[in-house]
Amino acid sequence: MSDPTRRRPPRPPAPRRRPRKDPVRVLAFEALRAVDERDAYANLVLPPLLRRARDAGELDARDAAFATELVYGTLRRQGTYDAVIAACVDRPLREVDPPVLDVLSLGAHQLLGTRTPPHAAVSASVDLARFVLSDGRAKFVNAVLRRIAAHDLDGWLTRVAPPFEDDPVEHLSLVHAHPRWIVSALWDALGPRAGREEIEALLAADNERPEVTLVARPGRSTVEELLGPDGQQARPGHWSPYAARFTEGGEPGAVPAVREGRAGVQDEGSQLVALALANAPLAGGDARWLDGCAGPGGKAALLAALAAGRGAALVAAEKQQHRARLVARALAGNPGPYQVVTADGTRPAWRPGTFDRVLVDVPCTGLGALRRRPEARWRRRPEDLDGFAPLQRALLAEALDAARPGGVVGYATCSPHPAETRAVVEDVLRGPRAGGAEWIDARPLLPGVPALGEGPDVQLWPHRHGTDAMYLALLRRTG
Ligand SMILES: C[S@@+](CC[C@H](N)C(=O)[O-])C[C@H]1O[C@@H](n2cnc3c(N)ncnc32)[C@H](O)[C@@H]1O
């Protein structure tokens, strides 16, 4: 029998290597937690986190760009990464703790959606798990990510997505990371002639980060000013005569005209909507314009500047007070008369028949702006359409009421979903409050813009026009 007293004393455990804080990944993790736990919006959560980390000297510009890419890319492709992770864990994903799932998703994105070398992606994620979670969970993260690292994205897609021929919607849903119902809705909206190539082009465009587009508010700035000396700063827009695009990334806040409110950040689709309404032919007076859903004020600021150039005045109405304040800020310094009012467009504060031109850019699902809000596609539900439907109809009916006979009404959404575009207009036109309104062909009012559909309304698309998928119907009140 051995003498226990002669046994060598157990070696003390090796001191655990405490992972150093990796500020980029810790920040990305915090942003994902906020989106997950508090239903926060990535585009609102991220800037203050980046600012704080920059102020603390933890991030330079490249790190900030990588952190942004990690957050946006992980959120955008969440459905695909969930399917891959589910294939690598031995329990349903709902039984994996959400913070662990966030670390796994970030790791999956580095492995499958970035050029990070696999060993670096795994070890950085394991260190992150040890730093923000625990050693035990880090082991689990290590095991799962090693399984994921066995294939690249294409390899995983052939494993988790059915062939297109067997189930086209499920295939596209996994390959292009959109929920099934949104794939179906977008495909319907593209029309019966849209084949696989077109729907794939649209879904792929939704996964690209859009260029930052500026608007030179007429009479206050010019595109030339925004292009900068020798056109170094930006390029002219594709369609709007007031647009300039940052093609290489750029900081709008660094542009003096933007800082001074003479220019703003605005997608070209939104510019085209405001321009089409402003340029619709009109007989008689043209002095009073209304934006009935103005917050945060992008279209109102362009309309107000155009109105000023013609001696017209804009009333910008917004139901929510804090958004009305944003409208007031966007319009400040407008050279012509305008008024910002906090008002419910379904209980108008103006007399019927007051306005020559009326815009209602109604609340909607935002399915046309998925490029900008990476988490939105996973949060939206088909039932949301029913939630917006009565409000959209009421706002359009009131807009028709607000226009004088002969006046023009624009109904706009940043969604191409037929239930919130043409169906709303057709319902209202069939209803008792149509005021004898008739369609105006909007297509000639977007000169030079191709592939706008069969009219009279227009639908813009990210993959065709490089804009958000804005919808516009123009109506003239006749009675
Ligand atoms: C799609 S956004 C408008 C965007 C705006 N046209 C722009 O370009 O900046 C819709 C706006 O309508 C507002 N809204 C919602 N219900 C409303 C109502 N009953 N009356 C007036 N505004 C309303 C929302 O608060 C939101 O600011």
UniProtKB/TrEMBL annotation:
Keyword terms: Methyltransferase, RNA-binding, S-adenosyl-L-methionine, Transferase
Basic residues bias: where? 7-20
What PROSITE patterns does UniProt report for this protein, alphabetically? NOL1_NOP2_SUN, SAM_MT_RSMB_NOP
Catalytic residues, per the record, are 414 (nucleophile)
Give an example GO molecular function.
Answer: RNA binding
Give residues annotated as binding S-adenosyl-L-methionine. Answer: 293-299, 318, 344, 361
Q: Which residues form the SAM-dependent MTase RsmB/NOP-type domain?
A: 199-478
Repressor as a keyword?
Answer: no
Task: Name any Gene Ontology BP term.
Answer: RNA methylation
Superkingdom classification of source: Bacteria
Which parts of the sequence are annotated with region: Disordered? 1-22
SUPFAM superfamilies in UniProt: NusB-like, S-adenosyl-L-methionine-dependent methyltransferases
Give the similarity note: Belongs to the class I-like SAM-binding methyltransferase superfamily. RsmB/NOP family.
Function in brief: May act as RNA methyltransferase.
The protein here is known as rRNA cytosine-C5-methyltransferase
